[in-house]
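Journal club side-thread
Mid-discussion, someone asked how the predicted structure for our own chain would compare to the paper's figures. Pasting it here so we can look after the session.
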Amino acid sequence: MRRWGRADQAVRIGRRSAVVLVLASVAGLMMFVWPLLVRVEPQSMQHGPDAPFIFIGILPVLIAVVLAELSEGGMDSKALAMLGVLSAVNAALRPLGAGVAGIETVFFVLVLAGRVFGAGFGFVLGCTSLFASALLTAGVGPWLPFQMMCSAWIGMGAGLLPRKVTGKAEIAMLVGYGIVVAYLFGFLMNLWFWPFITGAEVPYHEGHLSYVAGAPVLENLHRFAVFTLLTSTAGWDTGRAITNTVAILVVGPAVLATLRRASRKASYGALPTFSQRRAGREAPTSVVD
């Protein structure tokens, strides 16, 4: 069974899990952009009624990813234990930033863990981290399923970055990735509610920037891009990008070394072999390659 990723990754992507991740990402993207493709009327509820159904839809996706990896041998009890530990660490770190001025202390761990343990692990960690932190900080609301999906993409994308980059170049690459995903996260999290608000007006811009039902997609996207640029890009998103940059530069090398040491000691993906100890006799001895 072909699997993509290094042998020391906690979750190596196999054919079944790759298909699940692609389908999950396409479905997740559709839950953000569907208002742009059909005619919807702005309302004050902002996904309130359908958020529970979206959340119920995300849970089977996580189960499908885990089951696909278990069946392909890409995830074992050690990987599940690491997933639980890092989810708890992220849940504990998030209240330290509390989202004030865009300071988010959860995403740099996703980037570093996805880098070390692989795209499949990063996808699941993104969902479980945001869910656990929402329970801890009373942040459960209609926005939670969308935050979970965005965080899953952040962790998955980190696992898909080029593997041959090492040393200072690797840190620079992760910093650049952390900046990009900080702005993408803000862009998508604005998109989840923007089509459902009315009378969106911002300073220094004449006229409203609200979604117009039935208007061409490009026209609505232009309004949304201006809305995002004027309301969050220079503030919250930039704060998030700065937080990711500082955290990865300061603690990134140490955290990467720690996670990789834990990955080597756990021997993710190692298979037992048998060596011949004496002439004419084979002694079944488990040897980690």
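Post-session note: The CA atoms of residues 100 and 236 lie 8 Å apart.
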